[in-house]
Amino acid sequence: MSANPNDDSMYMTEAEYLEFNRDSEIRHEYIQGEVVAMAGASQNHNRLVATIRFLLYGHLRNKKGCEVYGENMRVKIKLADLQTFPDLSVVCGDIQLTDDLPPALLNPNLIIEVLSPSTESYDRGKKFKAYRQLPSLQEYILVSQDSAHIERYVRKVDLWELSDATGLDATITLSTIDCPLALVDVYENVTFEDKTLASD
C-alpha cells in the first residue's frame, strides 16, 4: 500500500515523524519532510497481500537466511529521504535495521506492491525511482488487483529488466528467492468484477 498523493499532508522533521507515526493508528509515509497518510486498501488488495505472503512464507520456511515481511515493516531509503511501508518485502542474509523504535528495514532484496487505482502511477514512478536507490534491492514486483497480471523488474547492473505474466494459467518466478508463483494461486481468493479479466 502506498501514500495517496491526494491526501492532506504535513511537514515534519524525521524525529517528529517517527514519534507521530509511532502513536498513530494510520501508517504514514515520510517523503523528504512531507508526511502523507497511507491510502486505504480494498478487499482484493488485502486478499492478494495475504495470499502472496502465505505463498512466500511456504517457499522460504525451509530455506535458511530469508525472511518475508508484511505491510507493517517500514523501509527507509536514505538516499531518497523516504520512509514507506511496502506491501511485502523480503531480506536474504543479514538484516539491517535502523535504531528507531520501531526500527525500519534498510536492505530489502525484494519488494512487492499491489497496485491500486489511486496509487498506481506513484508505485510505478516516483516510488520505484526511490526504491532503485536501495543498493540491496534486486527485484520489484507489481501485482494488479483488477486482472490476473504481475510485472517483474529485475536489476541488471544499472538497468532494470521487465518481464510479466498474464492470465490464471501463467507462472512468474521471483528470481531473487527462486520462487515460482502460479497466478492461479496468487489470485485464488480474488473476485474480478469483469470475469474476462482473469484471462486477459
Description:
This protein has 200 residues and is an alpha+beta fold. Helices cover 22% and strands 30% of the residues. It is built from 5 helices and 13 strands. It has helices spanning 14-23, 43-60, 120-124, 126-131, 183-186; strands spanning 9-11, 28-31, 34-37, 66-69, 75-77, 82-84, 88-92, 110-114, 139-143, 149-156, 159-166, 171-174, 179-182. The strands form 3 sheets. Strands 4-7-8-9-10-11 form a 6-stranded mixed β-sheet, with helices on one face. The chain has a 5-stranded antiparallel β-sheet with strand order 1-3-2-6-5, with helices on one face. Strands 12-13 form a two-stranded antiparallel sheet. A hairpin with a 2-residue loop joins strand 10 (149-156) and strand 11. The two termini are 24 Å apart. The relative contact order is 0.15. Residues 1-7 have low confidence and may be disordered.
How would you concisely characterize the structure shown here?
This protein has 200 residues and is an alpha+beta fold. It has five helices and 13 strands.
Which key features would you list for this structure?
200 residues; alpha+beta; 6-stranded mixed beta sheet; disordered N terminus
Which descriptor suits the 3D outline? globular
Q: Number of DSSP strands?
A: 13
Structural class: alpha+beta
Low-pLDDT runs of 5+ residues are 1-7
| Percent range for β-strand residues | 25-35%
Topology as a string of helices (H) and strands (E): EHEEHEEEEEHHEEEEEH
State the distance separating the first and last CA atoms. Answer: 24 Å
Helical percentage: 10-25%
Number of helices: 5
Question: If you average the pLDDT, what whole number results?
Answer: 90
Tell me about the largest β-sheet: 6 strands, mixed
Radius of gyration: 16 Å
The largest sheet has its strands arranged as 4-7-8-9-10-11
